Protein backbone atom coordinates (compact mmCIF):
# COMPACT_ATOMS: atom_id res chain seq x y z
CA UNK A 1 0.00 0.00 0.00
CA UNK A 2 1.53 3.28 -1.14
CA UNK A 3 1.52 6.12 1.40
CA UNK A 4 0.65 9.55 -0.10
CA UNK A 5 3.26 12.28 -0.10
CA UNK A 6 2.71 14.30 3.14
CA UNK A 7 2.81 17.66 1.36
CA UNK A 8 0.31 16.57 -1.28
CA UNK A 9 -1.93 15.01 1.36
CA UNK A 10 -1.94 18.15 3.51
CA UNK A 11 -2.87 20.22 0.47
CA UNK A 12 -5.72 17.84 -0.42
CA UNK A 13 -7.01 17.94 3.15
CA UNK A 14 -6.92 21.75 3.19
CA UNK A 15 -8.73 21.95 -0.14
CA UNK A 16 -11.51 19.65 1.03
CA UNK A 17 -11.82 21.57 4.31
CA UNK A 18 -11.95 25.03 2.75
CA UNK A 19 -14.69 24.29 0.26
CA UNK A 20 -16.93 23.08 3.10
CA UNK A 21 -16.46 26.09 5.39
CA UNK A 22 -19.65 28.16 5.60
CA UNK A 23 -20.22 31.56 7.18
CA UNK A 24 -23.42 30.35 8.88
CA UNK A 25 -21.57 27.56 10.74
CA UNK A 26 -23.86 25.95 13.33
CA UNK A 27 -26.71 28.22 12.17
CA UNK A 28 -27.14 26.13 9.02
CA UNK A 29 -29.12 23.67 11.15
CA UNK A 30 -32.36 23.89 13.04
CA UNK A 31 -34.19 21.54 15.39
CA UNK A 32 -37.20 19.51 14.37
CA UNK A 33 -40.54 21.30 14.38
CA UNK A 34 -42.12 21.60 17.82
CA UNK A 35 -43.88 18.78 19.64
CA UNK A 36 -47.17 20.36 18.57
CA UNK A 37 -46.25 19.37 15.00
CA UNK A 38 -47.60 15.88 15.65
CA UNK A 39 -47.04 14.20 12.31
CA UNK A 40 -43.37 15.13 12.30
CA UNK A 41 -41.86 15.51 15.76
CA UNK A 42 -44.16 13.72 18.21
CA UNK A 43 -43.10 10.81 20.42
CA UNK A 44 -43.99 7.77 18.27
CA UNK A 45 -43.32 5.27 21.06
CA UNK A 46 -45.97 6.32 23.58
CA UNK A 47 -48.04 3.31 24.54
CA UNK A 48 -45.56 0.73 23.22
CA UNK A 49 -45.86 -2.08 25.79
CA UNK A 50 -47.47 -2.51 29.20
CA UNK A 51 -44.45 -1.30 31.17
CA UNK A 52 -44.32 1.95 29.25
CA UNK A 53 -48.09 2.43 29.56
CA UNK A 54 -47.71 2.31 33.33
CA UNK A 55 -44.74 4.64 33.24
CA UNK A 56 -46.62 7.21 31.17
CA UNK A 57 -49.30 7.75 33.81
CA UNK A 58 -48.94 10.75 36.10
CA UNK A 59 -45.56 9.57 37.37
CA UNK A 60 -44.27 9.41 40.94
CA UNK A 61 -43.86 13.17 41.47
CA UNK A 62 -46.67 15.39 42.71
CA UNK A 63 -46.83 19.15 42.99
CA UNK A 64 -44.98 20.27 46.12
CA UNK A 65 -42.98 17.05 46.62
CA UNK A 66 -39.59 17.24 48.36
CA UNK A 67 -36.99 14.69 47.26
CA UNK A 68 -33.23 14.23 47.65
CA UNK A 69 -32.07 13.78 44.03
CA UNK A 70 -33.69 14.94 40.82
CA UNK A 71 -31.82 13.61 37.80
CA UNK A 72 -32.62 15.28 34.48
CA UNK A 73 -32.40 12.60 31.80
CA UNK A 74 -33.07 8.85 31.84
CA UNK A 75 -30.45 7.65 29.36
CA UNK A 76 -27.07 6.16 30.13
CA UNK A 77 -25.75 9.26 31.91
CA UNK A 78 -28.81 9.50 34.18
CA UNK A 79 -28.90 5.78 34.91
CA UNK A 80 -25.20 5.76 35.73
CA UNK A 81 -25.62 8.70 38.09
CA UNK A 82 -28.55 7.06 39.83
CA UNK A 83 -26.94 3.62 40.01
CA UNK A 84 -23.63 4.88 41.39
CA UNK A 85 -25.46 6.98 44.01
CA UNK A 86 -27.37 3.89 45.14
CA UNK A 87 -24.10 1.98 45.38
CA UNK A 88 -22.71 4.86 47.48
CA UNK A 89 -25.47 4.30 50.02
CA UNK A 90 -28.15 6.77 48.96
CA UNK A 91 -31.74 5.53 48.77
CA UNK A 92 -33.33 5.06 45.36
CA UNK A 93 -36.64 6.07 46.97
CA UNK A 94 -35.29 9.60 47.30
CA UNK A 95 -34.40 9.84 43.59
CA UNK A 96 -36.34 10.47 40.42
CA UNK A 97 -35.15 10.53 36.81
CA UNK A 98 -37.17 13.03 34.77
CA UNK A 99 -37.27 12.77 30.98
CA UNK A 100 -39.40 14.19 28.19
CA UNK A 101 -39.23 10.74 26.59
CA UNK A 102 -41.80 8.09 27.42
CA UNK A 103 -39.36 5.68 29.07
CA UNK A 104 -35.78 4.87 29.97
CA UNK A 105 -33.07 4.88 27.32
CA UNK A 106 -32.19 8.43 26.26
CA UNK A 107 -30.95 8.31 22.68
CA UNK A 108 -31.81 4.59 22.65
CA UNK A 109 -35.41 5.46 23.46
CA UNK A 110 -35.75 7.83 20.52
CA UNK A 111 -33.62 6.02 17.95
CA UNK A 112 -35.25 2.79 16.74
CA UNK A 113 -34.44 2.89 13.06
CA UNK A 114 -33.75 -0.32 11.10
CA UNK A 115 -30.17 -1.54 11.40
CA UNK A 116 -29.55 0.31 14.67
CA UNK A 117 -26.64 -1.05 16.73
CA UNK A 118 -23.98 0.40 18.98
CA UNK A 119 -20.72 1.06 17.15
CA UNK A 120 -18.57 0.46 20.24
CA UNK A 121 -18.36 -3.10 21.55
CA UNK A 122 -21.46 -3.72 23.66
CA UNK A 123 -19.37 -5.44 26.37
CA UNK A 124 -17.82 -2.07 27.24
CA UNK A 125 -20.61 0.21 26.02
CA UNK A 126 -23.65 -1.14 27.87
CA UNK A 127 -23.57 0.06 31.50
CA UNK A 128 -23.61 -2.16 34.58
CA UNK A 129 -23.13 -5.49 32.80
CA UNK A 130 -21.05 -6.74 35.70
CA UNK A 131 -23.59 -5.56 38.28
CA UNK A 132 -26.67 -6.94 36.50
CA UNK A 133 -25.03 -10.11 35.17
CA UNK A 134 -26.46 -9.47 31.71
CA UNK A 135 -24.64 -10.94 28.70
CA UNK A 136 -25.23 -9.12 25.38
CA UNK A 137 -26.28 -11.43 22.59
CA UNK A 138 -23.77 -9.95 20.11
CA UNK A 139 -20.52 -8.02 20.09
CA UNK A 140 -22.50 -5.00 18.85
CA UNK A 141 -25.93 -5.05 20.46
CA UNK A 142 -29.05 -3.90 18.67
CA UNK A 143 -30.71 -0.67 19.70
CA UNK A 144 -33.68 -2.58 21.07
CA UNK A 145 -31.44 -4.75 23.25
CA UNK A 146 -29.70 -1.66 24.61
CA UNK A 147 -33.01 0.09 25.33
CA UNK A 148 -34.33 -2.96 27.16
CA UNK A 149 -31.10 -3.10 29.14
CA UNK A 150 -31.70 0.49 30.27
CA UNK A 151 -34.98 -0.70 31.78
CA UNK A 152 -33.11 -3.62 33.37
CA UNK A 153 -30.62 -1.25 34.98
CA UNK A 154 -33.40 0.94 36.37
CA UNK A 155 -35.12 -2.11 37.84
CA UNK A 156 -31.85 -3.43 39.30
CA UNK A 157 -31.25 -0.24 41.26
CA UNK A 158 -34.91 0.55 41.94
CA UNK A 159 -34.75 3.82 40.03
CA UNK A 160 -38.01 5.68 39.38
CA UNK A 161 -38.79 7.63 36.23
CA UNK A 162 -41.04 10.63 35.66
CA UNK A 163 -41.64 10.38 31.91
CA UNK A 164 -43.23 12.51 29.21
CA UNK A 165 -42.29 15.41 31.47
CA UNK A 166 -40.27 18.44 30.43
CA UNK A 167 -38.13 20.22 33.02
CA UNK A 168 -38.55 23.96 32.56
CA UNK A 169 -36.26 25.45 35.20
CA UNK A 170 -34.30 24.77 38.38
CA UNK A 171 -33.67 27.67 40.75
CA UNK A 172 -31.57 27.55 43.93
CA UNK A 173 -33.47 28.69 47.04
CA UNK A 174 -30.92 29.70 49.68
CA UNK A 175 -33.46 29.78 52.48
CA UNK A 176 -34.80 26.29 51.81
CA UNK A 177 -31.37 24.96 50.84
CA UNK A 178 -33.20 23.30 47.98
CA UNK A 179 -33.57 23.54 44.24
CA UNK A 180 -37.02 24.63 43.10
CA UNK A 181 -37.75 22.70 39.91
CA UNK A 182 -40.60 23.53 37.56
CA UNK A 183 -41.73 20.93 35.06
CA UNK A 184 -44.56 20.28 32.65
CA UNK A 185 -46.30 17.01 31.92
CA UNK A 186 -46.42 16.79 28.16
CA UNK A 187 -49.29 14.30 27.87
CA UNK A 188 -51.75 15.51 30.50
CA UNK A 189 -52.91 18.81 29.08
CA UNK A 190 -49.60 20.48 29.87
CA UNK A 191 -50.06 20.45 33.65
CA UNK A 192 -47.18 22.21 35.42
CA UNK A 193 -45.88 21.08 38.79
CA UNK A 194 -43.15 22.33 41.13
CA UNK A 195 -40.99 20.05 43.26
CA UNK A 196 -38.19 20.74 45.73
CA UNK A 197 -35.00 18.73 45.64
CA UNK A 198 -31.78 18.80 47.61
CA UNK A 199 -29.59 17.91 44.63
CA UNK A 200 -30.04 18.44 40.91
CA UNK A 201 -28.04 16.28 38.48
CA UNK A 202 -28.42 17.37 34.85
CA UNK A 203 -27.71 14.20 32.88
CA UNK A 204 -29.30 15.13 29.56
CA UNK A 205 -26.22 15.15 27.37
CA UNK A 206 -25.97 14.76 23.58
CA UNK A 207 -27.56 12.88 20.68
CA UNK A 208 -31.14 13.50 21.80
CA UNK A 209 -32.17 16.73 20.00
CA UNK A 210 -32.51 15.90 16.28
CA UNK A 211 -31.33 18.51 13.82
CA UNK A 212 -32.13 19.16 10.18
CA UNK A 213 -30.65 21.48 7.57
CA UNK A 214 -32.40 24.75 6.88
CA UNK A 215 -33.69 24.18 3.36
CA UNK A 216 -35.90 26.48 1.32
CA UNK A 217 -39.16 24.80 0.34
CA UNK A 218 -39.02 22.23 3.14
CA UNK A 219 -42.58 22.77 4.41
CA UNK A 220 -44.01 22.50 0.91
CA UNK A 221 -42.13 19.25 0.29
CA UNK A 222 -43.30 17.56 3.49
CA UNK A 223 -46.86 18.58 2.69
CA UNK A 224 -46.62 16.35 -0.38
CA UNK A 225 -44.50 13.35 0.66
CA UNK A 226 -43.59 11.59 3.95
CA UNK A 227 -40.53 13.21 5.57
CA UNK A 228 -39.07 12.04 8.88
CA UNK A 229 -35.86 12.04 10.92
CA UNK A 230 -34.15 8.77 11.78
CA UNK A 231 -34.69 9.57 15.48
CA UNK A 232 -38.46 9.60 14.81
CA UNK A 233 -38.60 6.67 12.40
CA UNK A 234 -42.02 6.28 10.74
CA UNK A 235 -42.69 2.55 10.44
CA UNK A 236 -46.23 3.33 9.28
CA UNK A 237 -44.58 4.77 6.17
CA UNK A 238 -41.87 2.15 5.65
CA UNK A 239 -43.34 -1.01 7.11
CA UNK A 240 -41.56 -3.13 9.71
CA UNK A 241 -40.96 -2.34 13.38
CA UNK A 242 -38.02 -1.78 15.75
CA UNK A 243 -37.53 -5.54 15.77
CA UNK A 244 -38.46 -6.24 12.13
CA UNK A 245 -36.52 -4.62 9.26
CA UNK A 246 -39.06 -5.73 6.63
CA UNK A 247 -39.55 -2.33 5.04
CA UNK A 248 -42.05 -3.66 2.51
CA UNK A 249 -43.94 -0.38 2.09
CA UNK A 250 -40.85 1.11 0.40
CA UNK A 251 -41.10 -1.31 -2.51
CA UNK A 252 -41.28 0.62 -5.75
CA UNK A 253 -40.71 3.93 -3.94
CA UNK A 254 -38.09 6.58 -4.72
CA UNK A 255 -36.40 7.21 -1.37
CA UNK A 256 -33.91 9.92 -0.45
CA UNK A 257 -31.58 9.88 2.54
CA UNK A 258 -29.70 13.05 3.51
CA UNK A 259 -26.52 12.22 5.43
CA UNK A 260 -23.61 9.80 5.31
CA UNK A 261 -22.58 9.67 8.98
CA UNK A 262 -22.85 7.09 11.76
CA UNK A 263 -26.63 6.79 11.40
CA UNK A 264 -26.77 6.66 7.62
CA UNK A 265 -24.21 3.85 7.33
CA UNK A 266 -26.63 1.65 9.29
CA UNK A 267 -29.83 2.82 7.59
CA UNK A 268 -28.68 2.77 3.96
CA UNK A 269 -28.20 -1.03 3.66
CA UNK A 270 -31.64 -1.68 5.19
CA UNK A 271 -33.48 0.80 2.96
CA UNK A 272 -31.52 -0.34 -0.11
CA UNK A 273 -32.93 -3.86 0.30
CA UNK A 274 -36.48 -2.62 -0.18
CA UNK A 275 -36.63 0.72 -1.98
CA UNK A 276 -37.41 0.89 -5.66
CA UNK A 277 -34.54 3.38 -5.88
CA UNK A 278 -32.46 5.00 -3.16
CA UNK A 279 -30.65 8.32 -3.53
CA UNK A 280 -28.03 9.00 -0.83
CA UNK A 281 -27.19 12.72 -0.60
CA UNK A 282 -23.63 13.25 0.63
CA UNK A 283 -21.79 16.40 1.63
CA UNK A 284 -18.77 14.79 3.34
CA UNK A 285 -18.01 11.05 3.29
CA UNK A 286 -17.26 9.16 6.48
CA UNK A 287 -14.47 6.71 7.11
CA UNK A 288 -16.20 3.35 7.07
CA UNK A 289 -14.38 0.20 8.12
CA UNK A 290 -15.63 -3.36 8.62
CA UNK A 291 -17.65 -4.10 11.75
CA UNK A 292 -17.40 -7.91 11.70
CA UNK A 293 -20.44 -8.52 13.86
CA UNK A 294 -20.46 -11.80 15.78
CA UNK A 295 -22.63 -13.58 18.30
CA UNK A 296 -21.43 -13.77 21.90
CA UNK A 297 -19.88 -17.13 22.62
CA UNK A 298 -20.60 -18.34 26.16
CA UNK A 299 -17.19 -19.95 26.57
CA UNK A 300 -15.31 -16.91 25.25
CA UNK A 301 -17.40 -14.66 27.49
CA UNK A 302 -16.42 -16.59 30.60
CA UNK A 303 -12.74 -16.96 29.76
CA UNK A 304 -11.91 -13.79 27.78
CA UNK A 305 -14.43 -11.11 28.73
CA UNK A 306 -15.98 -11.45 32.19
CA UNK A 307 -12.67 -12.50 33.73
CA UNK A 308 -13.33 -11.44 37.32
CA UNK A 309 -14.36 -8.51 39.53
CA UNK A 310 -13.78 -5.17 37.81
CA UNK A 311 -13.56 -6.74 34.36
CA UNK A 312 -15.74 -4.14 32.61
CA UNK A 313 -13.80 -1.15 33.93
CA UNK A 314 -10.48 -2.82 33.04
CA UNK A 315 -11.69 -3.67 29.54
CA UNK A 316 -12.91 -0.11 28.99
CA UNK A 317 -9.59 1.38 30.05
CA UNK A 318 -7.70 -1.06 27.85
CA UNK A 319 -9.83 0.09 24.91
CA UNK A 320 -9.03 3.74 25.63
CA UNK A 321 -5.26 3.17 25.71
CA UNK A 322 -5.40 2.94 21.91
CA UNK A 323 -6.44 6.60 21.60
CA UNK A 324 -3.59 8.33 23.43
CA UNK A 325 -1.55 9.14 20.33
CA UNK A 326 1.30 6.81 21.27
CA UNK A 327 2.90 3.97 19.34
CA UNK A 328 2.28 0.87 21.39
CA UNK A 329 4.53 -2.20 21.36
CA UNK A 330 3.38 -5.25 19.47
CA UNK A 331 2.69 -7.14 22.70
CA UNK A 332 0.38 -4.44 24.10
CA UNK A 333 -2.86 -6.38 24.78
CA UNK A 334 -5.87 -5.47 22.67
CA UNK A 335 -8.83 -6.94 24.51
CA UNK A 336 -11.55 -5.47 22.28
CA UNK A 337 -9.68 -5.94 18.98
CA UNK A 338 -12.10 -4.25 16.61
CA UNK A 339 -12.11 -1.48 14.02
CA UNK A 340 -11.66 1.17 16.68
CA UNK A 341 -8.47 -0.24 18.18
CA UNK A 342 -7.04 -1.56 14.92
CA UNK A 343 -8.06 1.05 12.35
CA UNK A 344 -9.22 4.19 14.12
CA UNK A 345 -6.29 4.84 16.47
CA UNK A 346 -5.87 8.13 14.65
CA UNK A 347 -8.94 9.31 16.59
CA UNK A 348 -6.38 10.25 19.27
CA UNK A 349 -6.28 13.73 17.79
CA UNK A 350 -9.66 14.36 19.39
CA UNK A 351 -9.28 12.33 22.60
CA UNK A 352 -6.03 13.51 24.20
CA UNK A 353 -2.84 11.92 25.45
CA UNK A 354 -0.09 12.11 28.06
CA UNK A 355 2.21 14.65 26.44
CA UNK A 356 1.75 18.35 27.16
CA UNK A 357 1.73 20.34 23.93
CA UNK A 358 3.15 23.86 24.03
CA UNK A 359 3.21 26.57 21.35
CA UNK A 360 6.78 25.50 20.56
CA UNK A 361 5.88 21.83 20.16
CA UNK A 362 2.58 22.13 18.29
CA UNK A 363 4.10 21.32 14.90
CA UNK A 364 5.97 18.33 16.32
CA UNK A 365 2.77 17.13 18.01
CA UNK A 366 0.72 17.36 14.83
CA UNK A 367 3.40 15.50 12.85
CA UNK A 368 3.36 12.72 15.44
CA UNK A 369 -0.42 12.38 15.12
CA UNK A 370 -0.14 12.27 11.33
CA UNK A 371 2.48 9.51 11.54
CA UNK A 372 -0.11 7.36 13.31
CA UNK A 373 -3.07 8.49 11.23
CA UNK A 374 -1.90 8.56 7.61
CA UNK A 375 -1.27 4.83 7.06
CA UNK A 376 -4.55 4.00 8.82
CA UNK A 377 -6.46 6.56 6.75
CA UNK A 378 -4.96 5.24 3.53
CA UNK A 379 -5.89 1.71 4.56
CA UNK A 380 -9.46 2.90 5.11
CA UNK A 381 -9.57 4.61 1.70
CA UNK A 382 -8.28 1.41 0.11
CA UNK A 383 -11.14 -0.44 1.82
CA UNK A 384 -13.58 1.87 0.00
CA UNK A 385 -11.97 1.11 -3.35
CA UNK A 386 -12.04 -2.61 -2.65
CA UNK A 387 -15.69 -2.57 -1.53
CA UNK A 388 -17.27 -0.34 -4.18
CA UNK A 389 -16.42 -2.07 -7.44
CA UNK A 390 -19.45 -1.37 -9.65
CA UNK A 391 -18.43 2.23 -10.36
CA UNK A 392 -14.89 3.59 -9.72
CA UNK A 393 -16.23 7.17 -9.79
CA UNK A 394 -18.60 6.39 -6.89
CA UNK A 395 -15.77 4.73 -5.00
CA UNK A 396 -13.66 7.88 -5.42
CA UNK A 397 -16.46 10.12 -4.10
CA UNK A 398 -16.93 7.91 -1.04
CA UNK A 399 -13.30 8.31 0.05
CA UNK A 400 -12.74 10.72 2.95
CA UNK A 401 -9.98 13.30 2.74
CA UNK A 402 -9.31 14.52 6.25
CA UNK A 403 -7.48 13.15 9.31
CA UNK A 404 -9.36 10.38 11.04
CA UNK A 405 -9.74 12.44 14.23
CA UNK A 406 -11.93 14.99 12.45
CA UNK A 407 -15.14 12.96 12.38
CA UNK A 408 -16.33 9.89 14.22
CA UNK A 409 -15.35 6.97 11.97
CA UNK A 410 -18.00 4.40 11.18
CA UNK A 411 -17.98 0.61 11.00
CA UNK A 412 -20.55 -1.28 8.97
CA UNK A 413 -20.26 -4.29 6.69
CA UNK A 414 -23.16 -3.49 4.36
CA UNK A 415 -22.87 0.25 3.72
CA UNK A 416 -20.17 0.42 1.06
CA UNK A 417 -21.34 -2.70 -0.84
CA UNK A 418 -24.82 -1.16 -1.04
CA UNK A 419 -23.47 1.26 -3.66
CA UNK A 420 -22.84 -1.73 -5.94
CA UNK A 421 -26.60 -2.26 -6.19
CA UNK A 422 -28.25 -0.87 -9.34
CA UNK A 423 -31.06 0.70 -7.27
CA UNK A 424 -28.68 2.85 -5.15
CA UNK A 425 -27.26 6.17 -6.34
CA UNK A 426 -24.77 8.34 -4.49
CA UNK A 427 -25.53 12.04 -4.99
CA UNK A 428 -22.25 13.65 -4.01
CA UNK A 429 -22.61 17.41 -3.58
CA UNK A 430 -18.83 18.05 -3.44
CA UNK A 431 -19.09 19.61 -0.02
CA UNK A 432 -21.95 21.97 -0.78
CA UNK A 433 -24.86 19.95 0.56
CA UNK A 434 -28.42 19.85 -0.73
CA UNK A 435 -29.44 23.20 -2.24
CA UNK A 436 -33.19 23.32 -1.65
CA UNK A 437 -36.44 21.43 -1.67
CA UNK A 438 -39.09 21.45 -4.38
CA UNK A 439 -42.69 20.26 -4.05
CA UNK A 440 -41.52 16.94 -5.51
CA UNK A 441 -38.04 16.35 -4.09
CA UNK A 442 -34.56 17.80 -3.61
CA UNK A 443 -32.20 19.87 -5.72
CA UNK A 444 -28.48 19.05 -5.57
CA UNK A 445 -25.79 20.12 -8.04
CA UNK A 446 -28.52 21.95 -9.96
CA UNK A 447 -30.45 18.71 -10.59
CA UNK A 448 -33.89 17.94 -9.16
CA UNK A 449 -34.38 14.44 -7.70
CA UNK A 450 -38.04 13.52 -7.42
CA UNK A 451 -38.81 11.46 -4.31
CA UNK A 452 -41.66 9.56 -2.70
CA UNK A 453 -40.09 9.47 0.78
CA UNK A 454 -37.34 11.59 2.40
CA UNK A 455 -35.35 10.37 5.42
CA UNK A 456 -33.20 12.82 7.37
CA UNK A 457 -30.09 11.10 8.76
CA UNK A 458 -28.74 14.51 9.73
CA UNK A 459 -27.70 13.89 13.33
CA UNK A 460 -28.29 16.00 16.41
CA UNK A 461 -27.85 19.56 17.61
CA UNK A 462 -24.58 20.18 19.40
CA UNK A 463 -24.30 22.31 22.53
CA UNK A 464 -21.64 24.98 21.98
CA UNK A 465 -20.53 28.12 23.79
CA UNK A 466 -22.93 29.19 26.52
CA UNK A 467 -25.38 26.50 25.38
CA UNK A 468 -22.83 23.89 26.44
CA UNK A 469 -24.00 24.50 30.02
CA UNK A 470 -25.68 21.33 31.36
CA UNK A 471 -29.34 21.14 30.29
CA UNK A 472 -29.19 24.46 28.41
CA UNK A 473 -29.48 22.81 25.00
CA UNK A 474 -32.90 21.59 26.16
CA UNK A 475 -34.05 25.07 27.18
CA UNK A 476 -33.81 24.33 30.91
CA UNK A 477 -32.98 27.46 32.89
CA UNK A 478 -30.67 26.63 35.82
CA UNK A 479 -30.28 29.58 38.19
CA UNK A 480 -27.80 29.42 41.06
CA UNK A 481 -26.67 31.77 43.79
CA UNK A 482 -27.47 35.46 43.42
CA UNK A 483 -29.77 34.80 40.48
CA UNK A 484 -26.98 33.87 38.10
CA UNK A 485 -27.93 31.56 35.27
CA UNK A 486 -25.64 28.63 34.53
CA UNK A 487 -25.70 29.58 30.86
CA UNK A 488 -24.24 32.99 31.73
CA UNK A 489 -21.32 31.46 33.63
CA UNK A 490 -20.56 29.10 30.75
CA UNK A 491 -20.41 32.08 28.43
CA UNK A 492 -18.33 34.31 30.73
CA UNK A 493 -14.62 34.83 31.31
CA UNK A 494 -14.83 33.31 34.82
CA UNK A 495 -16.02 29.95 33.47
CA UNK A 496 -14.44 26.97 35.25
CA UNK A 497 -15.39 23.55 36.57
CA UNK A 498 -14.04 21.12 39.13
CA UNK A 499 -13.14 17.92 37.27
CA UNK A 500 -15.93 18.74 34.82
CA UNK A 501 -18.65 17.75 37.34
CA UNK A 502 -19.38 20.93 39.34
CA UNK A 503 -19.00 24.70 39.15
CA UNK A 504 -18.83 27.40 41.82
CA UNK A 505 -21.98 29.41 42.51
CA UNK A 506 -24.25 26.42 41.89
CA UNK A 507 -24.46 24.44 45.14
CA UNK A 508 -25.75 20.86 45.15
CA UNK A 509 -25.51 20.78 41.36
CA UNK A 510 -23.30 17.97 40.05
CA UNK A 511 -23.32 16.46 36.61
CA UNK A 512 -21.67 14.00 34.23
CA UNK A 513 -20.68 15.78 31.03
CA UNK A 514 -17.89 16.53 28.58
CA UNK A 515 -16.49 20.03 29.17
CA UNK A 516 -13.59 19.73 31.61
CA UNK A 517 -13.98 15.98 31.83
CA UNK A 518 -12.60 13.15 29.72
CA UNK A 519 -13.15 12.11 26.12
CA UNK A 520 -13.54 8.69 24.57
CA UNK A 521 -15.24 7.04 21.59
CA UNK A 522 -17.10 5.18 24.35
CA UNK A 523 -19.17 7.87 26.06
CA UNK A 524 -20.62 5.38 28.54
CA UNK A 525 -17.16 5.01 30.05
CA UNK A 526 -16.84 8.80 30.40
CA UNK A 527 -20.21 9.16 32.11
CA UNK A 528 -19.51 6.19 34.38
CA UNK A 529 -16.22 7.60 35.64
CA UNK A 530 -17.84 10.97 36.30
CA UNK A 531 -20.95 9.45 37.90
CA UNK A 532 -18.79 7.34 40.20
CA UNK A 533 -16.74 10.42 41.06
CA UNK A 534 -19.71 12.64 41.94
CA UNK A 535 -21.26 9.82 43.99
CA UNK A 536 -18.02 9.44 45.97
CA UNK A 537 -17.87 13.19 46.62
CA UNK A 538 -21.45 13.24 47.89
CA UNK A 539 -20.95 10.11 49.98
CA UNK A 540 -18.03 11.68 51.85
CA UNK A 541 -19.85 15.00 52.18
CA UNK A 542 -22.90 13.27 53.66
CA UNK A 543 -20.69 11.39 56.11
CA UNK A 544 -19.40 14.70 57.46
CA UNK A 545 -22.78 16.38 57.79
CA UNK A 546 -24.53 16.32 61.19
CA UNK A 547 -27.85 16.65 59.34
CA UNK A 548 -27.58 15.19 55.81
CA UNK A 549 -30.98 16.61 54.89
CA UNK A 550 -29.51 20.12 55.14
CA UNK A 551 -26.23 19.28 53.41
CA UNK A 552 -24.88 21.78 50.89
CA UNK A 553 -21.88 20.89 48.69
CA UNK A 554 -20.16 23.40 46.44
CA UNK A 555 -16.79 23.53 44.72
CA UNK A 556 -14.60 26.49 45.61
CA UNK A 557 -13.59 29.09 43.05
CA UNK A 558 -9.92 28.39 43.78
CA UNK A 559 -10.32 24.65 43.12
CA UNK A 560 -12.25 25.02 39.88
CA UNK A 561 -9.81 27.60 38.56
CA UNK A 562 -6.87 25.33 39.34
CA UNK A 563 -8.49 22.41 37.49
CA UNK A 564 -9.51 24.52 34.51
CA UNK A 565 -6.02 26.03 34.33
CA UNK A 566 -4.80 22.47 33.79
CA UNK A 567 -7.45 21.91 31.12
CA UNK A 568 -6.25 25.06 29.38
CA UNK A 569 -2.62 23.99 29.71
CA UNK A 570 -3.37 20.73 27.89
CA UNK A 571 -5.77 22.19 25.33
CA UNK A 572 -3.15 22.60 22.60
CA UNK A 573 -3.35 18.84 22.09
CA UNK A 574 -6.47 19.68 20.07
CA UNK A 575 -4.69 22.13 17.79
CA UNK A 576 -4.77 19.32 15.23
CA UNK A 577 -8.52 19.89 14.88
CA UNK A 578 -7.78 23.08 12.93
CA UNK A 579 -6.98 20.93 9.90
CA UNK A 580 -10.44 19.37 9.98
CA UNK A 581 -13.36 19.67 7.64
CA UNK A 582 -16.41 21.20 9.36
CA UNK A 583 -18.28 18.87 11.68
CA UNK A 584 -19.26 18.14 15.28
CA UNK A 585 -15.71 18.23 16.59
CA UNK A 586 -14.85 21.74 15.45
CA UNK A 587 -18.38 23.15 15.73
CA UNK A 588 -18.80 23.33 11.95
CA UNK A 589 -15.63 25.38 11.61
CA UNK A 590 -16.27 27.76 14.53
CA UNK A 591 -13.22 26.39 16.37
CA UNK A 592 -10.99 27.72 13.60
CA UNK A 593 -12.69 31.10 13.78
CA UNK A 594 -11.99 31.29 17.53
CA UNK A 595 -8.38 30.25 17.04
CA UNK A 596 -7.83 32.92 14.42
CA UNK A 597 -9.69 35.69 16.28
CA UNK A 598 -8.74 37.40 19.54
CA UNK A 599 -6.41 35.86 22.12
CA UNK A 600 -9.19 36.09 24.74
CA UNK A 601 -11.65 34.10 22.61
CA UNK A 602 -8.95 31.54 21.94
CA UNK A 603 -8.20 31.23 25.66
CA UNK A 604 -11.90 30.85 26.54
CA UNK A 605 -12.27 28.11 23.93
CA UNK A 606 -9.24 26.30 25.35
CA UNK A 607 -10.71 26.36 28.88
CA UNK A 608 -13.90 24.69 27.63
CA UNK A 609 -12.30 21.63 26.02
CA UNK A 610 -12.21 18.14 27.45
CA UNK A 611 -9.11 17.29 29.50
CA UNK A 612 -6.24 16.86 27.05
CA UNK A 613 -4.49 14.19 29.08
CA UNK A 614 -6.79 11.51 27.73
CA UNK A 615 -9.15 9.05 29.34
CA UNK A 616 -6.61 7.01 31.30
CA UNK A 617 -5.05 10.09 32.89
CA UNK A 618 -8.43 11.59 33.85
CA UNK A 619 -9.58 8.29 35.35
CA UNK A 620 -6.39 8.02 37.39
CA UNK A 621 -6.70 11.60 38.65
CA UNK A 622 -10.26 11.22 39.94
CA UNK A 623 -9.66 7.68 41.27
CA UNK A 624 -6.70 8.88 43.34
CA UNK A 625 -8.70 11.92 44.44
CA UNK A 626 -11.58 9.74 45.62
CA UNK A 627 -9.20 7.36 47.40
CA UNK A 628 -7.88 10.21 49.58
CA UNK A 629 -11.39 10.88 50.83
CA UNK A 630 -10.76 14.51 51.75
CA UNK A 631 -12.84 15.96 48.86
CA UNK A 632 -10.39 18.85 48.71
CA UNK A 633 -11.82 21.72 46.69
CA UNK A 634 -15.42 21.17 47.83
CA UNK A 635 -16.99 23.14 50.65
CA UNK A 636 -19.40 21.19 52.83
CA UNK A 637 -21.88 23.11 54.95
UniProtKB/TrEMBL annotation:
Signal peptide: none
Keywords: FAD, Flavoprotein, Monooxygenase, NADP, Oxidoreductase
Cofactor requirement: FAD
Molecular-function annotations in GO: monooxygenase activity
Family: Belongs to the FAD-binding monooxygenase family.
Protein's UniProt name: Cyclohexanone 1,2-monooxygenase
High-level lineage: Eukaryota, Fungi, Dikarya, Ascomycota, Pezizomycotina
